Amino acid sequence: MMLRETASQTAGPYVHIGLALAAAGNPERDEEIWSEMAKPDASGEHIEIVGTVIDGNGDLVRDAFLEAWQADAEGHYQADYDLRKPFNSFGRTATIAEQGSEWSLKTIKPGAVAHPNGKLMAPHINLAIFARGVNIHLQTRLYFDDEVEANRECPVLSRVESDNRRQTLIAKREEAGGIIRYRFDIRLQGPGETIFFDF
């Protein structure tokens, strides 16, 4: 007898139907945890993060779902989610085929966060990736290419010995129309595979 995967074991369309309603083509709820983590009155440097998810064949994953968790501009995580607040540490986004299979977040640049060893971790955003064929979500981090000194001193990032591998965690700064944007493409497998963490 062959046992098949259940809905709880695959990301498939289920994550989008429950958590990314607009991406699934469903009406949105009045209160939705989504990609705008920072409202215009949030303190800090307002930025946009954009990227794609690429599979082992080099093809775009058109239906990936991502969750983001980051500190505020002062380096503190906000544990209480409230849509009325100017900034929340938690957000969600998805790649949407009709939008070039890109995902995006509107947020603020996070501050440096204290590591348990007392040193400061470079500004970063934690990402969890859910996608077809990925039965257990993947976790990675996004660092910023214009934080060279902080990246060099970061007790987490500096543990990656290979500079080529370390570069898979670095988002590249772009500027378009006065918007500060960082591009971060996630490669699930193959050449240039993104580093994934086991927390």
From TrEMBL:
Family indicated by similarity: Belongs to the intradiol ring-cleavage dioxygenase family.
GO molecular function list: ferric iron binding; protocatechuate 3,4-dioxygenase activity
InterPro entries: Intradiol_dOase_C (IPR000627), Intradiol_dOase_core (IPR015889), Intradiol_RC_Dioxygenase (IPR050770), Protocat_dOase_a (IPR012786)
Keyword set, alphabetical order: Dioxygenase, Oxidoreductase
Gene3D superfamilies cross-referenced by the UniProt entry: Aromatic compound dioxygenase
EC class of the enzyme, as a word: oxidoreductase
SUPFAM superfamilies: Aromatic compound dioxygenase
Pfam entry (one): Dioxygenase_C
Entry EC no(s): 1.13.11.3
Residue span, Intradiol ring-cleavage dioxygenases domain: 38-190
Name recorded for this polypeptide: Protocatechuate 3,4-dioxygenase subunit alpha
